[in-house]
Amino acid sequence: MTSQPSPVSTVETTTNRLSTADLITVGVFAALYFVMVCVATLVSTLFTGGFGSIFLPAIAALISGPVFMLLAARLGKFGGITVMGLVIGLFLFVSGHFALSFVASLVFPLAADLIARAGRYRGRTSLLVSYVVFSYGLTGPILPLWFMKDAYVASLEARGKDAAYIEGVFAHINAGTFVVSMAAILVCALLGGWFGQRLMRKHFAKAGIA
Amino acid sequence: MDAVDARNVSFRYGQADDAPALESVSLGVAPGECVVLCGASGCGKTTFTRVVNGLAPSFFRGTLSGDVLTCGLDAARVPIDRLTPLVGSVFQNPKTQYFNANTTDELAFPCENMGMDAAEINRRVADAAGRFGVTDLLDRGIFRLSGGQKQRVAMAAAVVLGPRLVVLDEPTGNLDAQAIDAMRDLVVRMKADGVSVLVAEHRLAWLNGVADRYAVFDAGRIVREYPADEFLALSPDHVAAMGLRTLDPEPCRRAVARLAAVPAEGDGPDGRTALLRTRDLVVGHGRGRRRAFSRTVPDLSLARGEIVGLMGRNGTGKTTLVRTLTGLAGPLSGRIELDGRTARPRDLMRAGFMVMQDVNYQLFSDSVREELMIGSDADDADACARCDRVLADLDLPRLADRHPMSLSGGQKQRVAIGSALMCGKDLIVLDEPTSGLDRFHMEQVGRLLRRLAQRGRAVLVVTHDEELAAGWCDRVIDLEAARG
Amino acid sequence: MRTAATAPTSRRDGRSLDPRAKLYLLLLANLMLFFHVGLATQATMIALFLAPMLVAGRVRMAARFAVLYAAMTALGLLDPDALGVPQLHVVSALAVGASMMLPCFATGAYAFTTTSASAFVCAMRRMRVPEAVVVPCVVIIRFFPTILEDYRRIREAMALRGIATGAFAWVRHPARSLEYVVVPLLMNATNVAQDLSVAALTKGLGRDGVHTSRTTIRMRAADWLAMAACTLPLALDAAGVI
Question: What positions does the domain ABC transporter occupy (chain B) (predicted)?
Answer without folding.
Answer: 4-244, 276-484
